[in-house]
Structure formats: structure tokens, C-alpha cells
Amino acid sequence: MPFIQRLYEACKVSFSPNGPVSDEALERVRVLLGKIPSTLLKIWKFLFLMHLMLAVANLNLKKSKYTIRPSDVGLEQEAQLARAWKGSAHGTNGKKGRNGSHLPPIRYLHLHECDSFYIGIFCMPPSSIIPLHNHPGMTVLSKLLYGSLYVRSLDWLDVPGPADLSRARPAKVVKDCQMTAPCDTTILYPTRGGNLHSFKALTPCAIFDILSPPYSSEDGRHCSYLWKSSMKGFSVDVLTGILESSRIKTSEVAWLEEFQPPDNFVVRRGLYKGPIIRA
Description:
By secondary structure, the protein is an alpha+beta fold. The chain has helices at residues 3-14, 23-34, 38-47, 50-60, 76-84, 236-246; strands spanning 15-16, 19-20, 106-113, 118-124, 129-133, 139-146, 148-156, 169-180, 186-188, 196-201, 205-212, 226-228, 253-258, 267-269.
């Protein structure tokens, strides 16, 4: 059975229209995407010293049957090109570069979508950007298949009154770093783990996503894009209370508000060349 089919079968029993059916079910899917099972970790810890175990894990990560590979989704050629890539690109997402030619846009490859979960891949050319956006009420598993990117993720902080994206709201920075494949699968939860995130491709790269439940405007799960703003509509006392209750510093807070993504954010549907999922 193709890896992607096994992954689909695991998702089918692990997710519902309300999200993951349990923490254990979510962990099963995470293991398939690229997390070494805890049972193996216990064995390795018993047999080897910690530094040796980590060395073995790193050496075998690409070959592990527990890790999704570019070849599992028809992207081996793209991954090889990414590994050989050198240099930099100017411009972003389908707009003209310095030489006047159009740079390739972000490609979206659709694999599956139902009421319970969605599976898709974003193939990003170097320097392309997916702006900061949210995943309301959703759990997201993301796996970097190949390449390197810069990721920034945040979580909303609790503020008095109802949530209103039309005005600036405070969010806590969760991650602000570079990631390079192979690396572990990340999980974003509805209210923690960096539910708001953005990506900038440093090399050609591809992000494999599983969302549960999928975006749905009818069910209040609309994708909103956000940008950094200034603190507006909140008194100093309210801000102080937010910081004290969250036990964070002012430097860890970013004020965000909704905006329309720029014209240079171009995503086009691509052709998925991997094994077809039999639903």
C-alpha cells in the first residue's frame, strides 16, 4: 500500500468534523508524518547513550519508514533540484524579478478534502512568502518535505471583550526561526502551538499540510490574513493586565490586525503527480 494511502487511512479514523478524536489519534498521524515512535525511543534510551541515540536517529531520519518522503508524493525531482540549488531569487510569488521575467508562483497540490480533514502541499520557490494567517478552531500538522524556510508563529492572547479582527489584537510569539528538512512534524492547536503562522522560502521547499477540520466559512473557520500593527484601543492598564496574566514580556507581544494579502501573493493550482488516494 502506498505511504500516502496508509496516511489517509490513519487520518480517516483519527479525525472528525470536530477535529482529532483523541490525543492518541493525533499522535498516530504525527508518527506517520515524521516523528519517531516513543516505544522506539525508550528502547534506544535503554540500549545507547543519549548522544549515540541522537546520532543514529539523525542518520536514519530520511530512510525511516515513519517519515514521509518527497518520493511518496511525487516530488522527488523537485527535492533533488532543491538540494542542488544555489544562489538567491529576487521578487516574490509570480511577480517580475530584476531581469524582468516572472518568477514562479507558489504551487498548491490538492490531495484530499472531506468534512473531517484536508491534505495538501504548498511548493514554494525561493523568496516566496505565505503571509501570516490563522486557523480558527483547527488543528494543523505541517511537515517540511524538502528545502529550508523561515517560519514565524504566534498565538492570540486573551483580551477583554469579544474577538474582533478588524482592530489590532495582541499575540504571543511562539516560534521565530529557520527550519531545514529533514525535521520533525509541527502541530498547531486551536489556541496554542502557534496557530497563526507565516512562511518565507529560503530555498525551493515544500510544506505538507493536514488540517482538521478544514477551513469552512459556513462553520466560522474563515482564513484571515494578518499583519503587524500598533496597539490601538487598549489602555496601558489593560495591556499590563494581559502581560501579567500571560507571564510574558512586552518584547514577546506583537499587535496584529486583519488585512487583504498583497498582489504579489500568488498561489496557483499545480498538478499532483504522486499516488492517488483511494477514498
